[in-house]
Amino acid sequence: MSERAAPSTIRDVAKRAGVSTATVSRVLAGIGNPKAETAGAVMAAVEALDYRPSAVARSLRMRRTNTFGLIVTDIQNPFFPEMVGAADDAARKVGYSILLGSAAFDEHRAVHYLDLMADRRVDGMIVATSQVSDESWHWLADSPVPVVVVNAEPASVPITVITSDNRAGMHTAAEHLIGLGHRRMAYIRAAGGITADLPRIEGFRAACRDAGIPAADILELPGDALFEGGEKAVVDLLAQGTDVTAIACHNDITAIGALRALRSAHVRVPQEISVVGCDDIAAASWVVPSLTTVAQQKAEMGRMAVERLLAMLDAGEGGIEPETIRVPMALQIRESTGPAAAGDIKR
Amino acid sequence: MSERAAPSTIRDVAKRAGVSTATVSRVLAGIGNPKAETAGAVMAAVEALDYRPSAVARSLRMRRTNTFGLIVTDIQNPFFPEMVGAADDAARKVGYSILLGSAAFDEHRAVHYLDLMADRRVDGMIVATSQVSDESWHWLADSPVPVVVVNAEPASVPITVITSDNRAGMHTAAEHLIGLGHRRMAYIRAAGGITADLPRIEGFRAACRDAGIPAADILELPGDALFEGGEKAVVDLLAQGTDVTAIACHNDITAIGALRALRSAHVRVPQEISVVGCDDIAAASWVVPSLTTVAQQKAEMGRMAVERLLAMLDAGEGGIEPETIRVPMALQIRESTGPAAAGDIKR
DNA sequence: GAGTAGAGTGCAATCGATTACACTCCGTGC
DNA sequence: GCACGGAGTGTAATCGATTGCACTCTACTC
Question: What is the three-class DSSP state of B287?
Fold first, then answer.
């Protein structure tokens, strides 16, 4: 047809209704008490022209975008969609929307999104990744826009943090294994830079220490927080022969990779080796055997992050002190853990 | 500290550099040939003030937001993050970003996002869901902004569509099963309203017809495109006793639900019953037995959608005719399918 | 009947960028 | 000496909304 039809503006509506733009704006915002007649004319014009106020123009004038930025480590990890969904719900309920960015394990991409969101003048940011440089953390902490960090703990930067109690969670998982009689265990870690890695391994070690298990009996294996990392760690472990009877993993995806490798090697789970994960993603109950894991309150954290941002917004600057909130985790016992095998596995 | 510090504006920069805002704008955009001295002063001021141009103001003036809206059926289905990731990559490369909305199987939410994106004046929209009313499809088709529909086929609306060749894909899956000797089969469908449902079941039926299998031998079961639907369908199927030797499912999540129910009932897969899914999500190769499935080119489709939008944008209105592009699917044979059992299952 | 209050609107500035147009120099050509 | 052209900048309009302030009426008080 014609050129790309320009959407109608408030001026078009005003003209058609025979009033000023100020009146149109007021009628639509429901402020002032317009005469029923005026209001009617405005609404009719809005209807006729299929008018939709431009959020862009409004944002410029109001100096608010009604948008929160949300950066996650990797949207492909099912852990995040659940969190994102909950955050989006909470935001939508109060008229905000979420601008999403997935860092995809790449610090440059994280920075890209940080910049993007700053340029877009989001009203607040949720940073749910630890793939962020120290420099960026400081920039965030100094930023005039409210920031909430989820599941990461930037050291020595005063900033609001909402995180699962990773230390206590993995402590519980270790106790569970120890209670089942496991003494020689392996732990598959995340890659460096993922801040949840440290508290989790520490919780695990602490529980072992408390049970009198020598640190040397705990094998720490490198991983990458992905399926491949879990798989490879187990392949290597078995290749060199091992007597561990349990494997704890940084997260569920790693654990599922581990399960896969154990199955390929015909090691029975949990009869020969028990496996526990962390996160409680949907797939944890899909796999065979279903995965014992430490559940994070994903949705709850997403919701909390948004609520916190809103609170910071209407408290204004300096209204709310940075604070670290620890959300409890809960052990989900499924099929992948059982009593320690009597004898060692040699193969 | 003070009030929420307002970010510095182009005027602040101009003042500090001792030039006009026009010059600042030109220097930053790299147009005109500013004297080296002027350019230097501008850059210095930008640096000193930590100036970032407001994308909001720019969008208003340019009447372009450099943003594409993307609506998916359900971000929790791993199928979508892969597509979204690819779309985001493609968009970022050319300076665009993606505003994401998950309809979460709710038509009202889909409409909400449609409105939101229209208000935000996105430069184009990707609609990767069929949870959209006829009215909305027409609205989209008439919309002045470019729209690409992914994996849905609004009937009788002239609009650009990129979709997997669902019919051919499921036809192939059926042939695979038939080739393995299966004759009595079940098919777990999606809920009504999911447009991929129809071509898939049709492809399945067609392959059976071609093989001379009477339609009555194909059991069509209701599902919901979710884990629960697959699980329930199989539970019901087994409860009433059945002689099927293979189950095809609308998608992988459904198939994984079916696997779970079969396992609970101690039916061996594939020895007693074969299962195939559709999508090829990551979890398809995680489950046990790993899932034979028909793979969609998720990333490719996300990329294509963005490219198409860009093409529509610089072709201007009417430059590109609506067209339906079918992306081929590929059978991924894994462990969940095998030769048909000799005898029926009675339990 | 003058004064006042308040309801209902309009005028115009503003948010922060981009860009058409006008203007000032300065060097050249003749 | 004057016209001309181009390089380099500045002035001001514009994008589409919101909102403080001023204004016009009407109704009411005394």
Answer: coil
